[in-house]
TrEMBL record:
<dbReference type="GO" id="GO:0003824">
    <property type="term" value="F:catalytic activity"/>
</dbReference>
<feature type="domain" description="CMP/dCMP-type deaminase">
    <location>
        <begin position="42"/>
        <end position="114"/>
    </location>
</feature>
<dbReference type="Pfam" id="PF00383">
    <property type="entry name" value="dCMP_cyt_deam_1"/>
</dbReference>
<protein>
    <submittedName>
        <fullName>Cytosine/adenosine deaminase</fullName>
    </submittedName>
</protein>
<dbReference type="InterPro" id="IPR016193">
    <property type="entry name" value="Cytidine_deaminase-like"/>
</dbReference>
<dbReference type="InterPro" id="IPR002125">
    <property type="entry name" value="CMP_dCMP_dom"/>
</dbReference>
<keyword id="KW-0175">Coiled coil</keyword>
<feature type="coiled-coil region">
    <location>
        <begin position="155"/>
        <end position="182"/>
    </location>
</feature>
Length: 186
C-alpha cells in the first residue's frame, strides 16, 4: 500500500478524515459519554477510500483499558474478513496514549493519524494523564512518532500545510468545540 505523510496527503483526504470523526465517531462518542464513558474515539480506515471499516469509542466504565483505540481494535479483530492491519490506516480523535500507541505497534499498523495532541488533551480537555504517565512510567516527555513500527501523524500539522488550510483549520476548531461540549465526568 502507498503510505501518506503530512507532505503527500491531499486536502480532500484530510476533509475525509474529519468527516469520519464528525459523522461516524462523534455520534457514537456522544452516546457512550452519556453512559459514563470518556470522549476518545478511533477508526480503522480503508487505505484508498479512507472509508471506515470499523469505528470505536472509549468504554472506560466497562474496563479502564478500553480506550477509544483499544475499543476500535476489539471491533476490528471481531470482523471475520478484515484486511491486515498494515494494509489499513488508523485514525484517532486524540493522540494515542503510550498504551494505545504500543497496541497499534503490536497489531502491525504502519500509518496512523490523530486530531488533538497531548497538550490539547491536557489543557483543553483537562486530562493530563498521557503526559504524566509518560514521565512517571517511562521517564520520557514524549513518544517517538516516527519509528520502525509505525508513523503517527498530526492531522492539524498536515492541515496547516494544506492548500485548503483555512477551511480545514476552521473545521478542526469547530470539532474541538463539539468535543469540549461533551458532558464527560472527569
Ligand atoms: Zn489510550
Amino acid at each position: 500500500m502507498k503510505f501518506r505523510t503530512p507532505e503527500t496527503i491531499t486536502a480532500e483526504e484530510l476533509h475525509k478524515m474529519l468527516d469520519v470523526i464528525e459523522h461516524r465517531i462523534l455520534p457514537l462518542t456522544e452516546d457512550f459519554v452519556r453512559k459514563g464513558h470518556n470522549l476518545f474515539g478511533g477508526a480503522v480506515l480503508d487505505p484508498v477510500s479512507l472509508d471506515p471499516i470499523v469505528v470505536g469509542s472509549n468504554r472506560r466504565s466497562d474496563n479502564p483499558v478500553f480506550h477509544g483505540e483499544v475499543e476500535t481494535l476489539l471491533r476490528f479483530y471481531e470482523q471475520k474478513d478484515r484486511p491486515k492491519a498494515e494494509e489499513t490506516v488508523f485514525l484517532a480523535t486524540h493522540e494515542p496514549c503510550c498504551m494505545c500507541f504500543s497496541a497499534l505497534a503490536w497489531c502491525g499498523f504502519k500509518e496512523a493519524w490523530y486530531l488533538f495532541d497531548y497538550t490539547e488533551t491536557d489543557k483543553d480537555f483537562n486530562m493530563p494523564d498521557d503526559l504524566i504517565m509518560l514521565k512517571e512510567l517511562f521517564g520520557s516527555q514524549d513518544i517517538r512518532r516516527r519509528n520502525s513500527y509505525l508513523n503517527l501523524y498530526s492531522i492539524k500539522e498536515a492541515a496547516k500545510q494544506s492548500e485548503d488550510a483555512e477551511r480545514l483549520m476552521a473545521r478542526i476548531e469547530s470539532l474541538k468545540e463539539k468535543y469540549k461540549a461533551l458532558p464527560v465526568v472527569l
